[in-house]
């Protein structure tokens, strides 16, 4: 499952540098997560780091991009192979 940032985002800038895959970028109004790069930190950490540091709890599971742990691990391996 990829993650998403909802409209409660306050643009505090703490999530972006925590993402080991570079999946978080500043959007037009709030930060956004690229689902093609998001592995929910599988392969890097035990928990998604963006969720851990978010002060307003605006980062949720994206229901439109669900993936199993095996799929997230495969995505991690593909992203780190380059």
Automatic annotation (TrEMBL):
4Fe-4S ferredoxin-type domain sequence ranges: 1-29, 31-64
InterPro entries: 4Fe4S_Fe-S-bd, 4Fe4S_Fe_S_CS, PSI_iron-sulfur_center, YfhL-like
Domain of life of the source: Bacteria
Pfam families: Fer4
UniProt keyword annotations, A-Z: 4Fe-4S, Electron transport, Iron, Iron-sulfur, Metal-binding, Transport
Gene Ontology CC, one term: cytoplasm
GO molecular function: 4 iron, 4 sulfur cluster binding; metal ion binding
Cofactor: [4Fe-4S] cluster
PANTHER family cross-referenced by the UniProt entry: PHOTOSYSTEM I IRON-SULFUR CENTER, PHOTOSYSTEM I IRON-SULFUR CENTER-RELATED
Protein name per Swiss-Prot or TrEMBL: Ferredoxin
Organism: Solemya pervernicosa gill symbiont
Taxonomy of the source species: Bacteria, Pseudomonadati, Pseudomonadota, Gammaproteobacteria, sulfur-oxidizing symbionts
């Amino acid at each position: 499952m990829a993650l998403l940032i909802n409209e409660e985002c306050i643009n505090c800038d703490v999530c972006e540098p925590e993402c080991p895959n570079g999946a978080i970028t500043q959007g037009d109004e709030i930060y956004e997560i690229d689902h093609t790069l998001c592995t929910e930190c599988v392969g890097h950490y035990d928990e998604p780091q963006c969720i851990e540091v978010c002060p307003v709890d605006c980062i949720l599971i994206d229901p439109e991009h669900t993936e199993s742990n095996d799929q997230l691990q495969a995505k991690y391996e593909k992203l780190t192979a380059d």
